[in-house]
Structures are given as C-alpha cells and as structure tokens.
Amino acid sequence: MSGALKRILVTGGAGFLGSHLCERLVEQGHDVICLDNFFTSQKSNVAHLLDRPNFELVRHDITLPIFLEVDEIYNLACPAAPGHYQYNPIKTMKTSVMGAINVLGMAKRCRAKVLQASTSEVYGDPEVHPQPEHYRGAVNPIGPRACYDEGKRAAETLFMDYHRMNGVNVRIVRIFNTYGPRMHPFDGRVISNFIRQALAGEPLTIFGDGSQTRSFCYRDDLIEGMIRMMGADDDFVGPVNLGNPTEFTIRELAECILELTGSRSRLVFQPLPADDPRQRRPDITLARQRLGWEPRVPLREGLIKTIEWFRSIDIRHYRPPTPNY
Ligand code: NAD
Ligand code: UDP
User: Fold this and answer.
1) Do the beta carbons of residue 297 and residue 166 sit within 8 Å?
2) Helices 299-312 and 250-261 sit at what angle, rounded to 10 degrees?
3) CB crowding 44-83: b at 16 or more within 10 Å, else e
4) 113 Cα–ligand 2 center, Å
C-alpha cells in the first residue's frame, strides 16, 4: 500500500456532504469507514459504494463511544438544517458535544488527525460583514438555534483544548451554506424547499420579506476545501471559513430558481423564524492564502445540477424526518 493511502473515518458519512466526501476518498483509494445513525439521511446515499472493497458502512450513534483504528477522522455527524436540528434540540447538543469528545478520544488513542465540520452559525446573527475567522460572533445562547450554534461552538472549544492539552492534530473548518445533489428534499433548507416547491408547482415560501442574504457554495467546491484542510501543514489548525463569497438575497434566489425550473409558482411571504441571521458572507482570505482554495462553481451552474437531481429522484422514497419543512 502506498504511504499516502490511509484508513479514514467519516462520521455522518451517509449525509449530504458526508456521502460525497466518502465518494471522493474511496476514489482516491483510501480505506473508508462511513459511520451514521441515518437520522437525517438514508442508505441510498452510499448504496453505490457498498460493493467497493475499500468502503465500509457502520450504523452507530456518535454520542456513544466506538473503538476503531484509523489515521484520519472527518467529524460531520450532526443534523445541519434548522428543521432537523430543532426537532430534538437536546439530542443535537449531545451529538455535537459528546460526538466531539468521542472522536477526539479516538484521535488521541490512535494518534489520528481529526477535522471538525463547524459552521458559519458560530457567528450567529453577525454585526461584522463579511465574517472573518477572528470575529467572535453574536449568538443567542437561549434561542431555538442555540442547540446547534452553541453545540458547534462547544465542539470547537473541545477541539482546541484537546489540541493544546493532549497535542491532538486537529483541524476546524467553518462551513457556510452549501447545496447540491443529495440534499434531503424535506430538510427545510431554502434551496431544497424552493426547488421542491417550484417543481411541484407549489408556492415558494419566502420567510420575512426576502431581503436577508446568504452565500451559497456548491458541494464539490466545499469537499475540495475540506480535503485540502485535512492535508494542510500541521501548524494550521484553523478555524478556516469555507464558503462562496458571492452573496444573494433570498428573494433573488427564489427568482433564479423559478427561472431555471421554468416554474410558474407564486412567491408567498411567511413570518421570519426567530434569530434568523439577516446577512451572511464568508471572508475567505485565509482559505485562499493557506489552502490555495476558492470556490469555482457559480450559483446558476450549481443550481442547474441540483435541479436536475431533484427531477431525477422519486420523492416518495424520502421520509420527512420532521414536520418543519
Ligand atoms: P446531513 O444532515 O445531510 O448530514 C449529517 C449526517 O449526520 C446525516 O447522515 C445524519 O444521519 C448523521 N447524524 C446525525 N446525528 C448523528 C449521530 N448522533 N450519530 C451518527 N450520525 C449522525 O447534513 P450535511 O449538510 O451533510 O452536514 C454535514 C456536516 O456539515 C454537519 O456537521 C453540519 O453541521 C456541517 N455543515 C453543513 C452545512 C451545509 O450548508 N450543508 C453548513 C455548515 C455546517
Ligand atoms: N428560508 C426561506 N424559505 C424557506 C426556507 C428558508 O425564506 O422555505 C430562508 C430562511 O429564513 C433563511 C434563509 O432562507 O433566512 C436560509 O435558510 P436555511 O434554512 O437554508 O439556512 P440557514 O438559515 O441555516 O442559513
């Protein structure tokens, strides 16, 4: 076996991002263990990898310890969409915190490198725009998004403390809104909602007046950034922002999806959820400098691929895990 080939654990590996990451790592020849409890995903996301000799699927809940021998760990296990993570907020916090402790313990025992999939939500509803990594954020610790935001912040703390105290080789990436094929059609995120609604001829639900902004990164760009961060110099632990710095209002996004789907759906306006960030755009200077990384896929191009995928699936095979879609 070439020295570059590794045993790699991907927690949350059956999810939207995790399944693509597994696919990339399997293609590179690594020995990949995909761990998932299928809370927000389904086996079909990785079914095409099951007969590969260098891929293994383990059903496990990361809040419980597990003993595996690995060289690298990507820790993605956590519900990511607001409707999913608010379904059982206590479990969401447990997954972030106990999941982090379990993967960090494994990394310490195996001397493995471990990467945390953190989030732009650590910046909360930001007063600084765009958001650089040194901005400390404005998170409401007692609101409905806190289970996710504070859980991810606590996980970053654990990663840094295991690094400082035990010398664990850690990496932290802060992921901004990412989309693409294999998003759960009922996850309640804006891109999946709008595409599903547009294709069904249902009204597109804009929360608030649609003037709030987000910056959307295509999944292939994001996965490339994650892999580069895992391979970065050992003195670069992050956190580093990964996202697309081109910013759109939610209303612009709705209009673009109507145009690309050819849908005649109407726009309807519904109340803005509590603590919904007004604006979000990553400052990716650090990723450019240290990883030589920047997104390549413009929104329209990524949306066309995503719409194509939504058209190809049989939506009856996707169970809404929560009523919040
Ligand atoms: P996803 O919901 O598709 O994937 C998460 C996966 O984790 C799912 O397969 C789910 O079943 C699994 N999971 C949840 N709880 C678990 C547990 N207790 N034990 C084992 N597995 C568990 O979401 P995604 O968009 O692929 O997100 C992946 C990671 O990236 C998450 O950690 C998320 O917080 C982070 N992230 C994603 C985005 C984005 O825009 N997609 C943005 C910021 C951060
Ligand atoms: N949103 C919307 N309609 C929807 C779903 C979401 O207008 O059907 C808005 C939501 O209020 C937020 C933005 O779109 O302002 C992005 O929401 P998403 O849940 O995708 O991600 P997050 O808020 O975590 O960035």
Assistant:
1) no
2) 60
3) ebbeebeeeebbbbeebbbbeebebebbbbbbbbbbbbbb
4) 33
Q: Is 148 a catalytic residue?
A: yes
Q: Tell me if 156 CB under 6 Å of ligand 1.
A: no
Sign of CA dihedral 180, 321, 186, 215: negative
> What pLDDT digit, counting tens, does each position of 91-145 carry?
999 999 999 999 999 999 999 999 999 999 999 999 999 999 999 999 999 999 9
pTM over 0.90: yes
Separation CA 214–CA 189 (nearest Å): 12
State whether the beta carbon of 175 lies less than 6 angstroms from ligand 1.
Answer: yes
Q: Is 164 exposed, middle or buried (0-12, 13-18, 19+ CB in 10 A)?
A: exposed
